[in-house]
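hiii, so i know i said id send this last week but things got crazy w the move. better late than never?? heres the sequnce for the chain we talked about at the cafe, plus the structure i predicted for it. fair warning i was half asleep when i ran it
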Amino acid sequence: MKRSILVSFLLISMATFSQKLTKEETDFILAADSTQMFKVIQITEPKEFKILKAVSTDVNPKDKLLPIIAKRMYLAMRNPENPGIGIAAPQVGINRNLFWVQRFDKSGEPFEFYINPKIVWRSELLRKGMEGCLSIPEDRGDVYRNYTIKITYFDLKGNFKEEIVEGFTAVVFQHEADHLNGILFTDRITEQSSWNVQSINNDVNLFLKKKLKPN
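okay and structure toks below
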């Protein structure tokens, strides 16, 4: 309990000293009004790939431009030509810790916006499932994700929150959180190709990562 309170205090303190948006970022965000969606950048463009592989930074949770960023990101995510269930700020050219996630674990399956999200705990139980990405056209593959995670974040009202998320919604959270660290789902597939895992009760989707015994 004390540790949880300490972690929360540290995260809130860090947010207080989060970097302000730069002039370049501000100009980019305000280049169009909130009714215009951002462009979703692609790995096929070298300059855009560099943005996707960069590590993002926190932002002031009460920055006045956040509602505009959120709205334009949402429109990009829900583009009728290629709708998604989540999107991270790097995917629209902004290396800040922000993303949208559809909450399949809640009534009505709403989309929610997360500011400075952090995964502070992960279960050992893994879930394997197919993933794709708005920034990686025509590519899909199986990825192992932690079945349950604990997250902390700020909402658009500047309130600090923490909660436990599991199942497919936790998968979406982890996919978007990876974007904030410059990690693509294809990177995870490459990384996990050498993993040694065992299924749980013969379930085709649930696994534990096995530790290899020393020779």
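btw The mean pLDDT is 92. thought thatd interest u
miss u guys!!
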